[in-house]
Recover the amino acids of this structure.
């Protein structure tokens, strides 16, 4: 079967589509529980994980090693869930992190802004039993759009709305939730999206590389250095400017690592000042 990554605009019906899609296909639907599970497994604060999951990092957080560790944990949790296959993953940059993998179907759920505001206002009014302020709902939707776009731009230097990030963009202005589910479920059953050993290996490689990144971001001797990781069939290659010997020792402790290679990055000399 397939791995489905859903990205959605607030008020476009993404969670409703994701849940029903999981039921229709017999897939596991993953949204907020990814954060809860990651916090429990890695001993991190769920409140901070949720904050970094929903918002772009502040200026201070962008230079904070602890923030990088939290973000890496979120990415690792997504990769590990993708390894299980037959899953619907909501958000968390899956459209970028799982790019180029044949059995991954990347879907964007969107709708016109005014319609999204109207839908969300109606939904919240029903939940609270009272009329909501249209201006408050408008600000909420606009802020959510801004935060999601800013987070993707900071983490991956991509535009969240770029259609090239997705295999299919679904506009729910005319399609009902059931209609959108029919469309995506039909695509997920296509033979082109069947899981092959090669596709599964690609997911496993990225998952292993991300687990090594978490280990490096956690260890006191390597956490302050930026070391890139690439994994292929258990062989991990580390690339950086410093602390590579320590990084090798850390990487070897991660389950699934068979061999560790390094590639030193030389810092170019500062040219002499010319008056």
């Amino acid at each position: 079967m397939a791995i489905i990554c859903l990205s959605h605009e607030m008020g476009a019906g993404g969670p409703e589509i994701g849940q029903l899609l999981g039921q229709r296909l017999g897939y596991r639907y993953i949204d907020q529980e990814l954060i809860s599970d990651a916090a429990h497994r890695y001993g991190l604060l769920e409140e901070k994980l949720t904050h970094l999951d929903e918002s772009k990092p502040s200026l201070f957080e962008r230079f904070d090693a602890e923030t990088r560790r939290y973000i890496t944990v979120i990415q690792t949790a997504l990769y590990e869930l993708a390894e299980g296959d037959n899953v619907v993953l909501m958000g968390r940059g899956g459209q970028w992190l799982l790019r180029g993998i044949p059995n991954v179907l990347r879907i964007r759920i969107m709708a016109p802004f005014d319609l999204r505001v109207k839908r969300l206002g109606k939904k919240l009014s029903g939940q609270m039993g009272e009329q909501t302020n249209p201006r408050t709902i408008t600000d909420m939707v606009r802020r959510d759009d801004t935060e999601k776009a800013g987070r993707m731009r900071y983490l991956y230097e991509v535009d969240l709305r770029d259609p090239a990030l997705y295999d299919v963009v679904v506009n729910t202005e005319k399609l009902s939730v059931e209609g959108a589910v029919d469309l995506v479920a039909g695509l997920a059953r296509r033979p082109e999206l069947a899981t092959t050993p090669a596709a599964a290996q690609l997911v496993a490689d990225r998952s292993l590389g991300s687990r090594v990144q978490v280990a490096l971001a956690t260890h006191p001797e390597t956490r302050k250095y930026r070391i890139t990781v690439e994994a292929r069939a258990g062989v991990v290659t580390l690339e950086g400017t410093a602390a590579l010997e320590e990084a090798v020792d850390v990487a070897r402790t991660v389950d699934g690592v068979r061999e560790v290679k390094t590639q030193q990055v030389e810092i170019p000399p500062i040219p002499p000042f010319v008056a």
Remarks:
- The chain has a mean pLDDT of 91.
- The longest strand covers residues 104-110.
- Residues 219-264 form one domain.
- DSSP finds ten helices and eight strands in the chain.
